[in-house]
């Protein structure tokens, strides 16, 4: 169940990051409400995952996978570029997540 909670937390993390850009410095009401709700949902579901996952594993996966999702969706939504350096970084993050899961015995 902890991995389901972590997956939900990652989705909230991505929504939070993308929503922050849409708030225009928290001057737009509905994007701001969305962003704050995602922040709260992400922290709450992360805390549920961390009841059984090590904090080092859970938090690192949450931020790492959230970062990848943010870059990919940022490219699709905001037309940001995905460069070769970003692709190499994705590989490093994914490799790190896999190694953390192996190290955690999962």
Automatic annotation (TrEMBL):
**Chief localization:** membrane
Keyword Transport tagged: yes
**Compartmental location:** Cell membrane
Which GO terms label this protein's molecular function in UniProt? transmembrane transporter activity
Q: Which residues cross the membrane?
A: 29-50, 57-78, 84-104
Q: Which domain of life is it from?
A: Bacteria
Keywords in UniProt for this one?
A: Cell membrane, Membrane, Transmembrane, Transmembrane helix, Transport
Keyword Electron transport found? no
The record ties this protein, via InterPro entries, to:
EmrE-like, Small_drug/metabolite_transptr, Small_multidrug_res
Q: Name one GO cellular component term.
A: plasma membrane
Q: How does it sit in the membrane?
A: Multi-pass membrane protein
UniProt lists the family membership as follows: Belongs to the drug/metabolite transporter (DMT) superfamily. Small multidrug resistance (SMR) (TC 2.A.7.1) family.
Output this protein's name: Quaternary ammonium compound-resistance protein SugE
Species per Swiss-Prot/TrEMBL record: Nonomuraea jiangxiensis
């Amino acid at each position: 169940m902890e991995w389901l909670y972590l997956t939900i937390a990652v989705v909230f993390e991505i929504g939070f990051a993308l929503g922050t850009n849409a708030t225009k410095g928290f001057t737009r009401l509905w994007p701001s409400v969305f962003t704050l709700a995602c922040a709260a949902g992400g922290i709450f579901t992360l805390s549920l995952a961390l009841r059984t996952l090590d904090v080092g594993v859970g938090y690192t996966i949450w931020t790492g996978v959230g970062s990848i999702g943010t870059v990919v969706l940022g490219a699709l939504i905001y037309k940001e570029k995905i460069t070769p350096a970003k692709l190499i970084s994705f590989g490093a993050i994914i490799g790190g997540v896999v190694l953390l899961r192996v190290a955690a015995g999962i």
